[in-house]
Amino acid sequence: MTPDGLLILHVCVCLLCVCCVPSGESLHFTCRALDDKDAKALSALAALQPTKCTLIVSINLSHNHLGDAGAVALGTALAGGAPALRKLLLHENRIGDVGVTAIAAAMRPSGAPGLRDVRLSFNAVGGAGMAAVADAFSSGGATELQELHASANTIGDAGLAALAAQLNAAPRLQVLALGSSSGGNLVGDDGARALVLALGAMEARAHGKLTINLKNNKLTPAGEAVLDEVGSAHPTLHIACRSIGARVDLGDDASPPSSQLNSREATPLTTPSEKPPESP
Q1: Which residues contact 268 (CB under 8 A, 6 or more apart)?
Q2: Measuring CA to CA, which of 45, 121, 150, 170 is 20 to 30 A from 115?
Q3: pLDDT band, residue 244 (cuts 50/70/90)
Q4: Nearest to 82 by CA among 58, 99, 60
Q5: Sorting pLDDT into bands at 50, 70 and 90, what band is 42?
Q6: CA-CA distance, 16 to 22, in Å (whole number)?
Q7: What is the per-residue pLDDT for 20?
Q8: In the chain, what is the straight-line distance between the N-terminal and C-terminal CA atoms, in Å?
Q9: Average pLDDT over residues 210-229
């Protein structure tokens, strides 16, 4: 079959799928080996519908083969207006920064500002993708967001820092997962420093406790200890950063060697209430 014929077949299959889903319900196509052609076809068909994407409340395309091209097509369709969308589940695909940037653009107020649950775990997302999500936060696109899952990607310190700086723009956020028992990211102590600073400026959480999961990242025991302390001192915050079996007790008199702070002579991690010692 020619490529054009294959694309037509994709469109026909997707049309049948869309027509079988009542308006105001969900588009759930998980574990179907869907690829970018399928995502493009679905997105093109959505744009041709009289109501476009305005009545869809949930999209689950997890456990497929979607890459950046498919995510860009989907993000472009949603950016045209998806006010009823509450869940966008894209975990376990092959989406990178380009695709997530398009998805982030769809989170802005003109797209799908009512999203409550976004799942991007087990993809290929890096710092640029998280920076785009943070920009969406700052533009007012996360006022209803309750859960953001992005574990098992390649997000580093800059990505966490960008998100942490916009926590006040996501007042209902209850779960920020850049780690899990199954896989983490590349966040190290520099990211922990940025998070500690941001938490020091975080406003009171009026909509419940915020849980930040950083398990299986690149934190040193010193970084984990400080995050533990910050989390335990904040009544509406929980930070999970220690992998199972990886807890290290430094003891009251123990001080971590400089190699535990990214092997550099950096300012030690401190809680917001602490001040570095003055030079003699």
Answers
A1: 222, 261, 276
A2: 45
A3: low
A4: 58
A5: confident
A6: 12
A7: 43
A8: 78
A9: 95
